Amino acid sequence: MSVGSSAMNDSALQAAPPANARGYWATVGRRIVRDKVSMVCVAILLLIFLSALLAPYLHLADPYQGSMIRRLRHIGTPNYPLGTDELGRDMLARLIYGGRLSLLIGISPVILAFGIGTMLGLIAGYVGGWVNTAIMRTIDVFYAFPSVLLAIAISGALGAGITNSIVSLTIVFVPQITRVAESVTTGVRNRDFVEAARASGANAFTIMRAHMLGNVLGPIFVYATGLISVSMILAAGLSFLGLGTKPPEPEWGLMLNTLRTAIYVNPWVAALPGVMIFAVSICFNLLSDGLRSAMDIRS
């Protein structure tokens, strides 16, 4: 081979982009984008989130103003596309404004539990020994009670209110996320890169933060995404029982409670809050399944 051709090959190799440069998360992102079901769920959730966030700018009717003259109007009534509730308040406005409280109470506990549970599970899984025993046996105590009964008991003890609902649901979800985080961390702590970090003299905090956290967040995040659907249902249940949002605030679970007396008069309007809860819950559930499949690169 001549010197000129060798130089041309070297320059071509230098100019060519490296193959397979995409990392793990880029591959996961590409796989989730190709999942049509997940993308439909993302579109629906974005529509609900944006409508709730931009509710004051959508020129909707006052969600608190009612009139006994126009109570329980049917879906498709002029000026009231989704009808009115038992007090004559516009259902479209109340559903959109209600999404703000429902999403807040449903998602906030999972976010808080994700942070607390991940920290506890990471410490328990990495340190092991009596620390693991102390944390995990304490967590196991909460598994003696069903999630619904535990949430009701804590909310009943703390009293009704949005803040107390978030606190009670956070306490319910922390043990579940902690157990998943501890299990994943236990499987990672003896990997070669962790042993190399120990051999280099890194302390335990640095190893957990810089070397282990990024490797355990994926499965925990997927599990937490699936918990949002459960949290939405539990939050609505607390409001339905009078342990969550107080009237006259628009919230989907509370709206179900107030409209239950009208189910025989106007069942379609009475079912609308339940439809919203179901739509958000099933979308988060399907999105969690899509994330789990996308992260399983081996499949």
TrEMBL record:
The chain crosses the membrane at residues 37-60, 101-128, 148-174, 216-243, 263-287. It is found in: Cell membrane. The keyword Hydrolase does not apply. Residues 99-288 form the ABC transmembrane type-1 domain. Pfam families: BPD_transp_1, OppC_N. Its main location: membrane. It comes from the Bacteria. It is a multi-pass membrane protein. InterPro entries: BP-dependent_transpt_permease, MetI-like, MetI-like_sf, OppC_N. The keyword Ion transport does not apply. Keywords: Cell membrane, Membrane, Transmembrane, Transmembrane helix, Transport. Belongs to the binding-protein-dependent transport system permease family. This is ABC transporter permease.
